[in-house]
């Protein structure tokens, strides 16, 4: 997607060995899940399984049950328990940065009431986007998770707009950053936040910003999409405009033959007329 090539598949022998190991881990894991076994050994096994297969939703559900059990029995260890669980999700995301189950679990853990992780979470997301492979800069899972975290932190849309500018400056071909910028800018203008109350001035400044990106790499489509969005905001009207009409008011339309079908209740009536004239 977006011109980023997929990684080549693994050699058949290596893939077969991994599949065999994965099946063995699953066969050991399932009895623990069914028997509600939440010992350290059982949890370590599920963590290893998820590191191998981050999309194994049954294991994520098991860990949610295990974590809740631990919190109910040892509420004073909230921070330690959540920290360990975030690390499990982080290891899974290293394997597959686009694993839905891992991202959902991470959100669930952060929602358990310890806000002390939020600043670190935001820093981790910045590190992933800046230091990892280029395709992670526009991984929509990362951007969705970032919106979740910043909402919990009550971080301002203006601060997030500045973040998109930094990300675009690093890589102009960042569709997710451009899209997030359009969402944030719409919110700021709609709320008439200080510095964004004059829509024409804001959009003019944005046009200058995106043109700098287009001049840098005119072949890149992401900037052009944002440019089209800006133009749409500029020409948008409250109600549709009538550009032209045909025929003009006061003219007539003459119907003949089969075009007159529907104007008469019987064929005998229709036979009395060669044509029908309708005023406009």
Automatic annotation (TrEMBL):
Transmembrane segments: none
Entry keyword Cytoplasm: no
Function: Catalyzes the transfer of a geranyl-geranyl moiety from geranyl-geranyl pyrophosphate to cysteines occuring in specific C-terminal amino acid sequences.
Family the entry assigns: Belongs to the protein prenyltransferase subunit alpha family.
Gene Ontology, cellular component aspect: Rab-protein geranylgeranyltransferase complex
PROSITE patterns according to UniProt: PFTA
Substrates-to-products reaction catalysed: geranylgeranyl diphosphate + L-cysteinyl-[protein] = S-geranylgeranyl-L-cysteinyl-[protein] + diphosphate
Domain of life of the native organism: Eukaryota
The enzyme's E.C. designation: 2.5.1.60
GO biological process, one term: prenylation
Protein name: Geranylgeranyl transferase type-2 subunit alpha
């Amino acid at each position: 997607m977006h011109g980023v090539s997929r990684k080549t598949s693994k050699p058949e022998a290596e893939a077969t060995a991994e599949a065999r190991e994965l099946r063995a881990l699953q066969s050991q894991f399932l009895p623990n899940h069914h028997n509600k076994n939440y010992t350290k050994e059982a949890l370590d096994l599920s963590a290893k399984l998820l590191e191998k297969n981050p999309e194994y939703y049954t294991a994520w559900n098991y860990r949610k049950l295990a974590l809740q059990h631990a919190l109910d029995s040892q509420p004073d260890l909230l921070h330690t328990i959540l920290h360990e669980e975030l690390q499990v999700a982080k290891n899974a995301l290293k394997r597959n940065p686009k694993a839905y189950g891992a991202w959902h679990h991470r959100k669930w853990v952060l929602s358990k009431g310890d806000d002390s992780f939020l600043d670190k979470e935001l820093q981790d997301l910045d590190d992933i986007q800046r230091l990892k492979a280029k395709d992670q800069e526009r991984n929509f899972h990362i951007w969705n998770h970032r919106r979740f975290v910043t909402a919990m932190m009550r971080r301002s849309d203006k601060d997030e707009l500045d973040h998109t500018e930094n990300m675009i400056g690093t890589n102009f071909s960042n569709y997710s950053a451009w899209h997030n910028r359009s969402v944030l800018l719409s919110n700021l203008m709609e709320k008439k936040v200080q510095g964004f109350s004059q829509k024409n001035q804001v959009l003019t400044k944005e046009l200058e910003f995106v043109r700098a990106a287009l001049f840098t790499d005119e072949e890149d489509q992401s900037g052009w999409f944002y440019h089209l969005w800006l133009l749409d905001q500029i020409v948008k009207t409250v109600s549709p405009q009538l550009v032209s009409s045909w025929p003009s008011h006061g003219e007539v339309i003459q119907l003949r033959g089969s075009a007159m079908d529907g104007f008469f209740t019987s064929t005998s009536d229709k036979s009395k007329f060669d044509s029908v004239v309708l005023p406009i």
